[in-house]
Amino acid sequence: MMLNPIDANRMIALAHDKSSRGRETLAAVIDDLFENQANVLSDREKRLMYNIIENLIHEVEVSVRRKFSEKLALRSDVPHDLIVALANDHVDVAYPVLSHSDVLRDQDLIEIIRLRTKEYHLAITLRDDLDEDVSAALAETGNENVIVSLLNNQNAKISQATVEYLVEQSKRFDTFQEPLLHRQELNADLATKMFTWVSKALREHIISRYNLDESTVEQLLNQSTQEELDNLPGAQDESAKRLLNRLKDNGEITLDLLIKSLTGGEISLFVGVFSVMTELDTLLARRILFGENGEGLALACRAIEIPEITFATIYSKTRRVSPARPNASRDDVNKMLTRYRNIAIGDARSALGQWRQGADLFTPIRSVFANV
Known about the structure:
Number of domains: 3
Strand content: under 5%
Shape: elongated
Order of helices and strands: HHHHHHHHHHHHHHHHHHHHHHHH
Mean pLDDT: 84
Low-confidence stretches: 1-6
Distance between the termini: 82 Å
């Protein structure tokens, strides 16, 4: 079939017909062109058909342009200028070609990423043929949803430089962490770097995927704890240190002071009081107080016979002090209280004694909690 001016005039007339019947008829004509004729038309006839469409996209409403876009997105013989025009149209029109058309070139996509909004970027993240330059441009948008969608596209190629950048960003955006850890581009060095700030479940994934040995895991846990402690407020509060020394001299280090300093947000004083009560150096006291799972805290508090209700308060509030972890839920507190009750005081005192003598933080914890 040869398209002629009558066909073009009919399509333009239908485009201006705003009635439901007119839109339905135009949609039927488009379907007929693409589904029944487009594959058998000569090159000249296809060029004529695409010229008609290119003229029509400036005359018809979004819903009709969207239909054009859906049809053309799946074809590789569409003129480049027509696809670019659709890709820069209203986002509802652009979406099909941005996410599927292989006529678009990398430079087209990069330009759209730089000039258009995140809705356009999200469509591009779904493409099956994203190369490293386009992925880098998407990452550079800094948009959390766009980057997560990119990372979840396992067909996207992402350069090592971009992966390294996103690993650093995953400290602030925890939504990046899981998809990053499932990327083939993520090497063992970057995964172990992430170990210090990801959740317990993701740490287990890292251990399993990269076959980390026990000594490496322990080293990473120590590093994670130290980094978290370094970010806590009041670490170098000199006034709190002077106050602590005065209180020690006056024999005023009490459980009541421990709780008041914690609830009052005087973290440096709180750590100092706990250090004196347990006879542990300040650094180890901080690691025990703010350790991720609270097991060291439970042992130390049990050893100095802190009441259960007071321990629950300390456990709950020390979870909140660190921005790197969520608050403890009521269920978390209840589970830890159950474990606390089951710790034999003799075992707890033995653990505290080992720490005072310089034992590694985790050895007494593993020994006691293997039986709790």
